[in-house]
Fold:
Amino acid sequence: MSKRGSILQDEAEMSDINISPMIDMVFILLIFFIVTTVFVQEPGVEVERERARSALDLEKNSILIAITPDGEVVYGGSNIGVVGVRGVVKRLTADNERMPVILQADRAAPSSTVIRVIDEAKLANPASVVSISTETP
Structure:
């Protein structure tokens, strides 16, 4: 009888499934997907953009900078001013030189501010493309 009891006990031990490696693998995959996710940071203000018939869709992975009617330059919900554009573009394009910069300029934004922001973005990274966001008609 003792032999039969030990056989049943051995079978019970063998039927347990060790799931700890699976849990480790799930956590590693979770960390991988979190690290490789691309986050698009919205400028944080609403602007009334001009309409254009030649509007094209651009990449999702881009730098969005807004220019308000008052001439404020906004990135990520905070006013960075024209002088802050160069630092933001340089920091964000350090890994990807081809990351486009998209300006969301309001219809009433001063053209001098728009030109200065384009200039600062090009000085920060000459390889990046600077575009102005418009609405499709």
About this structure: The two ends are 87 Å apart (CA to CA). Helices lie at 2-14, 20-36, 83-92, 111-124. The mean pLDDT is 79. Residues 2-36 form one domain.
